Amino acid sequence: MAAALDAMGARRRAGKARRPISGAMRKSARGRDLWVACETDLKGEVTRGSLELLSHGDQLMARLGGALFAVGFPGALARHAAVLAHYGADRLVVLDHPALESYTPEAAAEAMAHLVRERTPWGVLLNASERGRVWGPRLAARLGLGLTGDAIGLELDGEGRMVALKPAFGGNIVAPILSKTFPQMATVRAGVLELAEPHRGRAVAVVETVRPQLGPVLSRMTAMHSLLDTSIVPLEGAQTVVGVGMGVGGPDGVAAAKSFARPLGAGMCATRRVTDQGWMPRQLQVGLTGKAIDPRLYFAIGVRGAPNHTVGIKRAEVVVAINNDSEAPIFERATLGVVGDWAAILPALAAALETKSAT
Ligand SMILES: Cc1cc2nc3c(=O)[nH]c(=O)nc-3n(C[C@H](O)[C@H](O)[C@H](O)COP(=O)(O)OP(=O)(O)OC[C@H]3O[C@@H](n4cnc5c(N)ncnc54)[C@H](O)[C@@H]3O)c2cc1C
């Protein structure tokens, strides 16, 4: 197995070849600019979802002609101006107000609404993250705009309108959604848009700090706790991912999968049924109603392979499935499959992978 994976290049550390970000800087034009609401994570780094939105926005703006704005809140974002520019941002706007120093959905929506009313971009994109899913709809409601939530793709139609793609009827079809209102708004799921190759020669043309006038903010976030196990590498951007399904049998099985993942430097994810059980946090659910991932190598352990799950691993290059049912649909998606009890197979596989990387 280890030799087969190496022959396929599944364990190579080098990144994938990606579309490059365009070098050109674009000029802002009312009604033609695209705004990407950028987020930082608990460590203060720009989230991969935000960089994916910018990467895709760069492509859209190359056709539409407006400028790509990274818009965010005070704190870490301003010091990431270079990274944002490398992924396509032409301008950075930081909304600065004491009420925005710690995130609350109300203040975020209120502040952004002011700016949208004042400047009328062509479109506003938000991450369909835990935060974006909460403040995005509030922003749309304040502005009286439509919002396509949880889009899995974004295109332009022949008239230069935003077409947001959404799975419908349990994922059996993808519905194109056009907004009747302007600016057009969507939240987009992490992992579905391709991350581009950053252009390190770009710099943002304008960094602007705007101080919106905000009324009293009724709620306040006093603390944020992550349920994620920090001994496991983050799922977003992981080159190797270990996914667990109900077949692992419970928290002990999850712990065994973690022990397998750690030495591989792999991220972890789970099926919805596993997160429903609370064996893994909801942020790690992959599939139709979870995240999409694009690792080089994906281990599916005790995962049946329901289409609602495999839609989230469409861009995984090599899939290794371990399942005790030879008829399990995951084997149709798998590059390599092992039929048997994961508890017997995983230690042997771990040892083989370890030996192989030591040689
Ligand atoms: C609207 C909608 C949205 C959904 N969205 C998602 C989503 O985003 N993500 C998602 O994952 N699911 C989603 N689902 C649920 C999805 O349809 C499946 O029910 C789910 O993915 C199945 O999870 P599972 O493979 O962990 O569990 P199961 O279906 O219970 O499969 C467990 C597998 O483990 C195998 N197994 C059992 N014991 C062992 C053992 N000892 N060793 C090896 N293998 C073993 C079994 O053979 C079986 O194939 C959604 C469903 C709906 C209706």
Structure description:
With 359 residues, the chain is of the alpha/beta class. The protein folds into 2 domains: 15-210, 3-Layer(aba) Sandwich (Rossmann fold), CATH 3.40.50; 240-358, 3-Layer(aba) Sandwich (Rossmann fold), CATH 3.40.50. It has 10 helices and 15 strands. It has a 7-stranded parallel β-sheet with strand order 5-9-4-1-2-3-10, sandwiched between helices. Strands 12-11-13-14-15 form a 5-stranded parallel β-sheet. Strands 6-7-8 form a 3-stranded antiparallel β-sheet, with no helix packed on it. Strand 6 (153-156) and strand 7 (162-168) form a beta hairpin. Helix 4 (105-119) packs across helix 5. The longest helix has 17 residues, at 48-64. The structure holds flavin-adenine dinucleotide (FAD).
Q: Please compute the radius of gyration using only Cα atoms.
A: 21 Å
Please state the second-level CATH architecture of the largest domain: 3-Layer(aba) Sandwich
What is the SS-derived class? alpha/beta
Helical content band: 25-40%
Largest sheet: 7 strands, parallel
pLDDT < 50 runs, ≥5 residues: none
Order of strands, widest sheet: 5-9-4-1-2-3-10
Global mean pLDDT: 92
Tally of strands: 15
Tell me the span between the first and last alpha carbons: 15 Å
Bound molecules: flavin-adenine dinucleotide
Specify the CATH class of the largest domain: Alpha Beta
Instruction: Tell me the domain tally.
Output: 2
Reported by name, the CATH topology of the largest domain is Rossmann fold
Number of helices: 10
CATH superfamily of the largest domain: HUPs
Order of helices and strands: HEHEHEHEHEEEEEEEHEHEHEHEH
Shape verdict: elongated
Strand content: 15-25%
